Amino acid sequence: MNNQSLETTGNSKQIDRPKAYVSKRNTMLIAALVILALFAGLWIWKSVQISNIKKDSAERQQALKQRADEVLMEAEMKYMKLIAKPYVWAIRTEMMRGNIDAVNLYANDMVKEKNFQSIMVADDKGTIISSTDKKLEGKDFSSVGKSAYLTADSTIIDQVNKSTLMVSSPVMGFNKRIGTLVFNYTIQKAEL
Prior knowledge:
alpha+beta; Beta-Lactamase; 5-stranded antiparallel sheet; single chain; 2 helices; 56% helix
């Protein structure tokens, strides 16, 4: 019996060793899986964070661009009013003298400047007497623009489309209106 108990004891040690080995192996496997799960969770969390940051950044950039376009538009409108006033003074003198060639010269020089598309001057009857587009000269202004421009007492700026402003300003003589200046101007876009 002693021999058998020794053998059994010996066998139980051999059986315990693989159980301990399997137990240790399972523990290491579980630990590895937990570590992998933690890394996967961390990776997913960071991916979501990066995605949210990119989305926020794109929204901020869009809002900034929109605000820059609005500020630029306001500045363009002020600039157009500032340009219209001395231009009207210059053509006023020439119109009162009946010097339409000088009015044409002013228009041809001005349209060469960046962003100016076309310039027209109508007389007090609404007939276009000067235009950078010579096909329009002699035509009634209401066929190409708003007839309200011909009676306005101050500079009017209308946005024709996303990229064009139409500016109208009265040309006043000593005691009455002698004409109307109208020009189209391309709006600058903000670049970020």
